[in-house]
Amino acid sequence: MPIIGKLLKKTTEISYKRNFNKGKEYTNQLKTLEKIVDKAKSTAFGQRYNFPEIILQEDVAEAYQKVVPITDYEEFYEEWLKDSIAGAKDHTWPGRIKHYALSSGTTGSPSKRIPVTDEMIRSFQKTTMRQISTLHELDLPDTFYSASILAVGGSAKLTKKETHIEGDLSGILKKYTSFVVNPFTKPGNKIAKIKDWNKKMEQMVEKAPDWNIGIVAGVPSWCLMLMERIIERYELKSIHDIWPNFQVYVHGGVFMQPYIPRLEKVIGQKVHLLDTYLASEGYFAYQTSPEREGMQLLLNNGIFYEFVPFNSDFFDENGTVKDKFEAFNMSQVTEGVDYAMVISTNAGLWRYMIGDLVRFVNVEEREVKIVGRIKQFMSLVGEHLSLDNLNCAVQHASETENIPIPEFCLYADTDNQRHIWFIGTNEPMTDERIKTVIDEELKRINDDYAGVRKYSLNEPVFKVVPVNTFYDFLASIGKAGSQNKMPRVMNPQQTKQWNLFLKKKGL
Questions:
Q1: How far is CA 328 from CA 61, 68, 337, 420, in A?
Q2: Which of 37, 46, 293, 391 is the most exposed place for a label (fewest CB within 10 A)?
Q3: Residue 349: is its pLDDT beyond 80?
């Protein structure tokens, strides 16, 4: 095994040197767009929007942006995706799309079906290997490279429909995992196919002593729950007592800072934390080093990116893009601006607004961080609170009061013109105290909020609840484990579900 570790470490080093600084130029984006437009020129979508003509233009990007409209999932589904799912051939991408990923979507909403093509699968595989090669920078011991990756994801069990196969993206990708890589991934096919989160966790706890884990990947809440359960079962001081080669935790999709205290308690020693930007629609970016503030966008991975400034000029109060807007490409973006990200992909998504808000922290290095969702912000009376504002205020409260707050959510009480908050912590804390700290911090960091709190937005209501309340809620609606996350800002449907759950729990 030491020899295998040395060989794999050397292979990683070679791959890293080959990929270093590769794909950062905007020309990579132009080549990507030209390639996917040319590939889809004979499809129904390509014919509708005259792709054969666009590909002949001197400025393909400009010609493409002038003709193809920006859409969200609902619009694209009704116009194009619905027929593709029903089996239409050569519709938005050449051939018949064989796989659809069921996105976890927003809690309380039905799953979206996102097309997954062979080209997209190859892009994922390539990016995964490129990300692994960046581990060379961490100077990890040889023993790490012979350890396995534990992916705490959704069920690998796929469902065969009349026209296609569907399931979690992790399950689709698992189906095409290389036989070389497969032995180094856990929990293995049998456990991975279990849909019930509690049963899956039981099996992983049972198998934990047999595994040599070097990397853990997944949503923090569920990964921490698993590791805590392992520690409890085997009466360990930390997870390193059973997985001594555990060196890297790969996370994504949530603000990580609130989970750090709990993670440090579980792992017992330092591990490298790496952020990823991965969704059912594509593998967009990853953190090349724990020291980097943002994640590097992948410009040569089958995805063409555009960015619409998220402001009142281009979006209404509901987060819906207006008829007139500006979409910038990678050569036109500015640091410090919140953008709604728009993608065109090698899976047949065209100028598709994914719903995420990103901010460039380093334009030269193409590094972004996720700052929210276009539908997950709070603006009841013009306060314009972004998810980033909410995360920062809660983190401030956590540090000020010296208590962990890994979970929270809120909704708009329209009848009383106020926000209703729920704060998840297991430490003693009064509703009034947490309200004061968070309310004052929001006034400090957001002028709009400070203004409306004086005149039109009433004092918020806060309720402190145990952390497990959030996970029990997700379990109650069939969304335990996998990539499921609690929405920070709840819509009316989610609010109704949440309040019914709390009523049943007597909270």
A1: 11, 14, 12, 36
A2: 293
A3: yes
- At 172, phi and psi to the nearest 5? -65, -45
- Under a CB-based contact definition with an 8 Å cutoff, are residues 323 and 394 in contact? no
Q: How far apart (Å, rounded) are the C-alpha atoms in residues 370 and 150?
A: 24
Fold of the CATH domain 387-505: GMP Synthetase; Chain A, domain 3 (3.30.300)
Secondary structure, 3-state, 240-253: HHCCCCCCEEEEEC
CA distance 170 to 376: 25
Residue 379 makes CB contacts below 8 A (sequence gap 6+) with 317, 385
DSSP letters, 104-152, are --STTSPPPEEEE-HHHHHHHHHHHHHHHHGGGGG---GGGGGSEEEEE
**What pLDDT, in 10s, does the model give residues 312-345?**
788 876 677 888 889 999 999 999 999 999 999 9
Strand locations in 317-447 (E): 338-345, 352-362, 367-373, 407-413, 418-424
Q: What is the mean pLDDT of the chain?
A: 88
What are the pLDDT digits (tens) for 439-489?
Answer: 999 999 998 899 889 888 999 999 999 999 999 999 888 877 766 788 899
Place of tokens 């947490």: 434
Pairing of strands 99-102, 213-218: unpaired
